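Researcher: I'd like a candidate sequence for this fold, 108 residues long. If you have to choose between options at a position, lean toward the conservative one.
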């Protein structure tokens, strides 16, 4: 396993900040609430991706376009954890819909 998983006990409407630089990556005060910093590798939900670096996508078995084309058949957590990216952190939080989550990946 090359990733570490941290489960956040926050509400779906709470901001999520980078563990390295403390920038709000999910910032509900901003019109564009997705605000990746230089440490952000991806921002995903069980229903699709909101952001992903090319560098991280190249380490995944399937492309983002392929995943989105089959999003009704994809387990997003399983897909992002199959990445061969060396040492990354996944922050998991509630998406506000029963059984759905948001995953934010950061460099380790």
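Model: Candidate sequence:
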């Amino acid at each position: 396993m090359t990733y570490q998983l941290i489960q956040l006990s926050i509400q779906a409407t709470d901001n999520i900040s980078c563990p390295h630089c403390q920038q709000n990556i999910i910032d509900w005060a901003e019109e564009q609430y997705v605000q990746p910093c230089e440490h952000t590798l991806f921002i995903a939900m069980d229903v699709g991706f909101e952001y992903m670096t090319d560098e991280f996508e190249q380490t995944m078995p399937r492309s983002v376009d392929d995943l989105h084309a089959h999003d009704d058949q994809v387990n997003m957590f399983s897909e992002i954890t199959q990445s061969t990216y060396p040492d990354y952190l996944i922050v998991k939080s509630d998406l506000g819909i029963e059984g759905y989550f948001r995953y934010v990946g950061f460099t380790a």
